[in-house]
């Protein structure tokens, strides 16, 4: 089985917050930030496996501070963990104030992507080969999150199965 280093798919995306990105309260619209996060994760997933990929899940997302018009949003994406056909991708979101250059973490998101074949079925991907101590720690932490996600998914499937008439 082919392996890849996390650094091979690491991605940075920068966006400037424009008027069309704002909500009615004059902050960056949360849905727009989720779109940017998902797009960055999609780039990471595609770079890692060079196959079709789809979003499988997005873990809880906390908006820690407001992002304003003219601020820059820096999305740093990297892969933490792989299974046979899935990837956990972490996106760090950093707000850079446009006029001061001050940077602060705005949020962090964990997304699961699934590689699929032309029929939409899961397909095998290269496994991740963490090298640095930080990458190894992220892998171990992600392995725990993956198990928690599997349990939550089974619970949700059972709940939904009981709701179908």
Question: Topology of this structure?
Answer:
Layout: E1 3-4, E2 11-16, H1 30-49, E3 52-58, E4 72-82, E5 86-96, E6 103-116, E7 127-128, H2 133-163
Parallel strand pairs: 1-7
Antiparallel strand pairs: 2-4, 3-6, 4-5, 5-6
Describe the structure.
- The structure is a single chain.
- By secondary structure, this protein is of the alpha+beta class.
- The chain has a single domain (3-163), classed as Hotdog Thioesterase (Thiol Ester Dehydrase, Chain A, Roll).
- It contains two helices and seven strands; from the N terminus they run ββαβββββα.
- It has helices at 30-49, 133-163, and strands at residues 3-4, 11-16, 52-58, 72-82, 86-96, 103-116, 127-128.
- The protein has a five-stranded antiparallel beta sheet with strand order 2-4-5-6-3.
- 27% of the residues are buried.
């Amino acid at each position: 089985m082919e392996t890849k280093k996390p650094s091979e798919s690491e991605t940075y995306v920068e966006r400037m917050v424009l008027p069309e990105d704002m909500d009615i309260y004059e902050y960056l619209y949360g849905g727009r930030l989720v779109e940017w996060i998902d797009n960055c994760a999609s780039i990471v997933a595609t770079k890692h496996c060079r196959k079709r990929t789809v979003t499988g899940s997005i873990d809880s997302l906390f908006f820690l501070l407001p992002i304003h018009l003219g601020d820059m949003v820096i999305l740093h994406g990297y892969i933490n963990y792989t299974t046979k056909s899935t990837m956990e991708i972490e996106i760090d979101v950093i707000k850079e104030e446009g006029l001061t250059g001050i940077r602060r973490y705005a949020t962090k998101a964990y997304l699961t992507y699934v590689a699929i074949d032309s029929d939409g079925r899961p397909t095998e991907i290269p496994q991740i080969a963490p090298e640095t101590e930080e990458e190894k720690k992220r892998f171990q932490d992600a392995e725990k999150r993956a198990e928690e996600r599997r349990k939550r998914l089974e619970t949700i499937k059972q709940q939904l199965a009981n709701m179908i008439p």
